Amino acid sequence: MADRAEAFNPAPLLLDTVLSAAWLGRALGGAGDPMDVRAVHIVDQFGPSCTKVRMELEFGPSAPPGLHSAYCLKGFFGDPGIGYLKSGVQLTESAFYRNCAPTLSMRLAECVHAGSDEATGAGVLLMKDLITAGARFLTALEPYSARQAESSLDQLARLHAASWGDAALAKWPWVRSKAKELTRYQVVPAARVTELMRGERGKPLPEAIRDGARIYAALGRIAERDTTLPHCLIHGDAHAGNMFENADGCGIVDWQLLQRGHWSLDVAYHVAAALTVEDRRTHEQDLLRLYLDRLAAHGVTPPAWDDAWDRYRESLAYGMFLWAITIRVDPPVIMEFNRRLGTAVADHDSFGRLGV
pTM for this structure? Predict the structure, then answer.
């Protein structure tokens, strides 16, 4: 039994391996004996970078009766996916599902295996399939209402409240602040960001904010600002495409950018990216007030309104940065997020408020 456990790779690099009945049986068995998986029926597969595979499993006679059979598998496999492993995002997401998710009162995918391999940076998630359970995944470009934003902001408030302050964050020392890292490493250099923003993605925006050096400088000021502000766990990429909806409300997926930071990075990014420009202008103050109320309901003394509103308006620059540097996403999504987030930055003079 010990030899068999030691031989199991929790996060293989080959998709064929993780889709095999043998590997899936071991993943479902956990620390116990492998489940008797006899057949794997692929329902759907998405790519091209991060691979997601929906499947139905067929169990043999030795498996316990009534086992859940519909799953979704997620990981980076093959080229170009393997290149993403160096970033550590899959190690982060696997660790979130192992260590953080069980402590949170959020609507999340139920993850039955969150394997990782520190040597390769690989992480493989096996989750109960949300679609089969009646959930609907939202998209970046479909309408997102203020009512939906109320539900998703409650989910963010639950995450933030459960991890508010240094004492709570001490449980997860492996979660890092990332704003400063993003400015330091410049995966997309500032000159290239300027080139991108001078192109199609920046056309709807004022000329003054279409400058890569200024976009990087704004994020740098946020990183400096946040060293003096309270931290909590933040999702880091809370646009509508990372939301699902079921009969109970909205839930959140895709925890690759999990980080410690100021709550306003999540809230400003979510409101400005998920809502249309017109709806964001109409509802953002009410939605921020609702978020602060939900923080209080989940046990945290919320910041005063004036301070919260100031931090919200500054933090819009974080979301704009993420989409100004984005390349490997469908162009219509890139264009719309740059328009929404860039317009919010212009509406609130976020760069000026940050002193850049």
Answer: 0.94
- The residues that bridge with 63 in the sheet, in sequence order, are none
Rounded Cα distance, 173 and 203, in Å: 42
Q: How far apart are CA 345 and CA 213, in angstroms?
A: 15
Of 319, 288, 345, nearest in space to 156 by CA: 288
Among 281, 243, 65, smallest CA distance to 139 is for: 243
Alpha-carbon distance of 30 to 218, in angstroms, equals 45
Domain covering 136-354: architecture = Alpha-Beta Complex (3.90)
Please report, for the chain, the start and end positions of each structural domain, with discontinuous segments joined by +.
2-128, 136-354
Q: What residues form DSSP beta bridges with 117?
A: 122
Interior angle at CA 168, CA 251 and CA 96, nearest 5: 45
What is the residue type of 64?
A: P
State the Cα–Cα distance between residues 354 and 195, nearest whole angstrom: 23
Round the CA-based radius of gyration of the chain to a whole number and report it: 21
For 295, the token pair is 């923080």
Contact 28, 10 (CB under 8 A): no
- Neighbour count for residue 289 (Cβ, 10 Å): 14
For residues 263 and 237, give the distance between their C-alpha atoms in angstroms, rounded to a whole number.
12
CA angle 111, 112, 117 (to 5 degrees): 90
At 172-213, the pLDDT tens digits run 999 999 999 999 888 899 999 999 999 999 999 999 999 999
